[in-house]
Here is the input.
Amino acid sequence: MKKKKLMMVLISQMCLTGAALAQTAAPPVPTGAKPPPSGTGVQIYGLVTEGVTVVNNQAGGASLHTVGNSPLAQSFLGFRGREDLGDGMAAVFRLETLIAADTGVAGNTVAGTGKFWNRQAFVGLTALDGAVSVTAGRQFAAATDRVVRSLDPYNVGGNLVATTPMALFGVNRYYTATATGTTGTDSRVDNSVKLRVNGPNGFTAAVSGSPSEGEGRNLSLDLAQETKDYTVGTYYTNYRHPNVLANGSVPNNTVYGLGGNVLIGPVRLYLNLLHSSIDSTTIGQAAQVDKLFASGLSWLISPQWVYRLEYTHDQGNNVITGATAAAKHVSTNGAKKTWVTSIDYYFSKRTSVYATLFNNRYTDGYLYEALNTSVRPAGVASSTGYSVGLQTTF
Here is the structure.
């Protein structure tokens, strides 16, 4: 009898432990989404994706074959935690690093500076049971939250300019590595503080900013209403160059937009209108102005099949081009048109295979625009690619 009682106690204890673990093992949420569920604990989460990608019209007119991250998503590893402080308050943190599953390299080099926690690294407090949050560290600007959350069927998650054109906007185009003097872009903001308020009926507002420290000053705003059936929102962000030009001016990069999505049956439709202005760092050169129209859809064909489609038209004026364009007397105005379509088959809620097809067409100044020529030779008017692969979340 004693042995039976002991066995019953052990079994019941194992059941209770299993139930507790099941409660804490909540599925991951996309980067930039709402904080982890209530409670205290640390979660490990992420995405691993690997596929074969082929893009034509590359160097010498040949096709480029690669094995690596999906063009629509990037592998990453993350840690997020929450500690309940009582009275509706909690401490939160998040650490995320990019992973190149094909080589095993973690982190990323941004404008010559290596960052291990390149995706996000912040700590903060929430109050009123999550209705108010303040976070500080390396994170998305408030405006980037809006585009990632509700204005792109791919959540701006791709790793190629050819498939994720909106990744060029709302980011710091003036990012400068002080140690090397090189410049580039950064989709996150260092040294930033963000306040977000979640009100009734899905209304949410946020403001974020960073001082003139290292990479220049940033101010960003987000205002939206988010419901399960629709989201509508507006956003604004401004970056200032970290340095003063020889003529005493400080270049600015300003982006603002309006958009949303709506669920109609099994299809969610997306629309985003964006305006971007970036001052040149060359004295006397006009600012580059882009007007972007992005539309798309996500169609839940069945619990296993998901189809997505996106079209983006970027009309650029005074596009910043290189010496090659000037030598060919190419207009500094130009357009970039991007089509992306994909289908996913889900073996489970976490694992799927994907197939995607994408196409880019360029005119005039965009034939020689520096950021886009990083994925194709200058002067090439179009490129088409496809990719197939596997991805799993954890």
Summary: Residues 2-24 form the longest helix (23 residues). Confidence is low (pLDDT under 50) at residues 1-36. The chain is about 10% helix and 50% strand. The chain has one domain: 57-68+129-393.
